[in-house]
Amino acid sequence: MPKIVIKNLDNKIISGNEAPESILNILQDNFVDWMHACGGKGRCTTCKAIILEGEENLGPLTTHEKRFADMNALKPNERLTCQCIVEKGEIVIKVPETSKLPHMKYSD
Ligand code: FES
Fold first, then answer.
1. For the chain, which residues make up each domain, given as ranges?
2. What is the distance between the terminal CA atoms of the chain, rounded to a whole angstrom?
3. What number does the ligand 1 atom closest to the CA of 38 have?
């Protein structure tokens, strides 16, 4: 069962299901508010996360992510949570400054 540690939400630890699913699905299943302006369609970049550890546990870049990476709107250590699949193991992520929600309290 994949695990996600959210570094700047006080190292909150959440778990996914057995089947591979997107980071955003796991966040939503665990009631973690995360910006996703286009509704998870891969058309914006507001849902991005900085990947601090466990990149090897993620699926490959999707077409939408490649497009944003080519436009320099997605850095090499960033993924779109609505697109990026957690295949196994544990990942450590961080909410980027640009995607912080005003009602949330971030620890960093
Ligand atoms: S919610 Fe818009 S790209 Fe993920």
1. 3-99
2. 27
3. 2
